[in-house]
C-alpha cells in the first residue's frame, strides 16, 4: 500500500503562475490552484482538505498574510507557506507572528526548494499527529488506571460499611448514566496526585458516615431514602429540588417521578471531575439512596438525558411511611 500524495493548495492571482505551478509540481503532489484567498476559503469551508498551503503575498483583495492568518485560525492543522517576489519584511513578519507559517519562498521559485519545503512541512505535521496520538493513548491508559483505582477504593469503602456488593456495582452504573465526563487534555492527568487519591477516598468515607449519622435519626429505610433523595435533588447544580416530586401510593408502593431541572454533577469516578465537598456529598447521597433502595427492593430508573437529572424512584412494599 503506497502513501497518498501530499495535497497542496496554491493561491496566486496570476493565471500564468497557477498554470506553471501545476505543470511543475503536478506529478510530485496533488495540486489544486486558486486565483484568490476567497476562493480557497470557500473550498475549505465546503469540506476540501489540503496538507500544505502556499500563498502568494501580493494579491488584490486579500493579501497572502491575511489568507494565511484566516487559515491558521480556522484550519490550524494545515501547514502554511508564503511566496513573494518582493522584500516585504512587514507582511512576512505578520505571517510568522500571526499565521504561524513554516517558511517563505521567493519568486521565481526554485523547484527543488519548493519540493523540499513542502516535504519538510508535511513531515512536521505528520510528526505532530503521531505525537498527539501517543499523548492521547497515554492519557487514555492513565485515565483508565485512575478510574479502576477509584472503583477499587469505593468497593472497599462499601465493604467496610457492610453494604451489599450489588450496591457498589449499581452505584457505578447509575453514575455512568447520570454524570457527564469532563473533557480533558492528556496533561490534565499528570496533575492527578496519587497521594491525594487516598485522601479523596478517606474524605468520601467521612462524607458517607456523616450523612448516615444524619439519616439515622429517621426510623426506617424508606424515610431515609426519601430524605436522602430530597437532599440530592436540592443539591444538583441549579436544581429545583422537591418542587418536581410527584407521589403515587398504591398497595404500599411508592413511585416518585423526579426532575432536578439540571444535571447531576460530576462523578467521583471521573479523574478530571471536581473533588470538592459538594461533589463528594452528591455522590455519597446517591450511594446511600441506592443502598436504602436495595434494602427495600426498590430501584432507580434514570432517563438517558445527561443535561437533566430525571427519572423515577420506585419503592416496593414499604412500611411506616404515610403521606
UniProtKB/TrEMBL annotation:
- List the keywords (alphabetical): Phosphoprotein
Q: Name one GO biological process term.
A: phosphorelay signal transduction system
What InterPro entries does the database record attribute to this sequence?
Bact_response_regulator (IPR050595), CheY-like_superfamily (IPR011006), Sig_transdc_resp-reg_receiver (IPR001789)
Domain Response regulatory, by residue range, is: 7-122
Q: Name one Pfam family in it.
A: Response_reg
List, alphabetically, the PROSITE patterns matched: RESPONSE_REGULATORY (PS50110)
SUPFAM superfamilies hit by this protein: CheY-like
Q: Does the keyword Phosphoprotein apply?
A: yes
Q: Which domain of life is it from?
A: Bacteria
4-aspartylphosphate-modified residues are 56
Q: Does this entry carry the keyword Phosphoprotein?
A: yes
Name-wise, this protein is Response regulatory domain-containing protein
Amino acid at each position: 500500500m503506497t502513501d497518498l500524495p501530499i495535497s497542496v493548495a496554491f493561491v496566486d492571482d496570476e493565471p500564468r503562475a497557477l498554470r506553471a505551478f501545476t505543470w511543475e509540481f503536478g506529478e510530485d503532489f496533488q495540486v489544486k490552484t486558486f486565483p484568490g484567498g476567497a476562493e480557497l476559503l470557500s473550498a475549505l469551508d465546503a469540506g476540501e482538505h489540503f496538507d500544505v498551503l502556499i500563498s502568494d503575498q501580493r494579491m488584490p483583495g486579500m493579501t497572502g498574510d491575511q489568507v494565511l492568518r484566516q487559515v491558521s485560525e480556522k484550519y490550524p492543522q494545515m501547514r502554511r507557506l508564503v511566496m513573494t517576489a518582493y522584500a516585504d519584511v512587514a507582511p512576512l513578519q505578520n505571517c510568522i507572528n500571526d499565521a504561524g507559517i513554516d517558511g517563505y519562498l521567493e519568486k521565481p521559485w526554485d523547484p527543488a526548494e519548493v519540493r523540499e519545503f513542502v516535504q519538510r512541512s508535511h513531515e512536521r505535521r505528520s510528526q505532530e499527529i503521531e505525537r498527539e496520538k501517543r499523548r492521547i493513548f497515554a492519557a487514555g491508559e492513565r485515565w483508565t488506571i485512575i478510574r479502576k483505582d477509584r472503583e477499587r477504593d469505593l468497593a472497599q469503602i462499601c465493604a467496610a460499611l457492610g453494604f451489599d456488593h450489588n450496591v457498589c456495582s449499581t452505584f457505578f452504573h447509575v453514575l455512568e448514566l447520570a454524570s457527564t465526563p469532563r473533557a480533558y487534555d492528556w496533561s490534565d492527568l499528570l496533575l492527578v496526585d496519587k497521594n491525594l487519591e487516598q485522601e479523596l477516598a478517606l474524605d468520601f468515607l467521612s462524607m458517607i458516615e456523616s450523612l448516615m449519622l444524619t439519616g439515622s435519626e429517621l426510623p426506617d429505610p424508606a424515610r431515609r431514602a426519601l430524605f436522602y433523595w430530597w437532599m440530592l435533588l436540592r443539591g444538583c447544580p441549579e436544581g429545583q429540588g422537591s418542587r418536581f416530586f410527584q407521589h403515587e401510593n398504591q398497595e404500599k408502593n411508592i413511585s416518585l417521578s423526579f426532575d432536578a431541572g439540571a444535571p447531576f454533577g460530576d462523578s467521583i469516578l471521573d479523574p478530571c471531575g471536581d473533588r470538592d465537598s459538594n461533589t463528594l456529598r452528591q455522590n455519597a447521597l446517591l450511594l446511600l439512596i441506592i443502598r436504602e433502595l436495595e434494602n427495600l427492593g426498590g430501584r432507580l430508573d434514570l432517563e438517558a438525558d445527561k443535561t437533566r437529572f430525571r427519572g423515577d424512584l420506585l419503592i416496593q412494599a414499604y412500611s411506616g411511611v404515610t403521606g
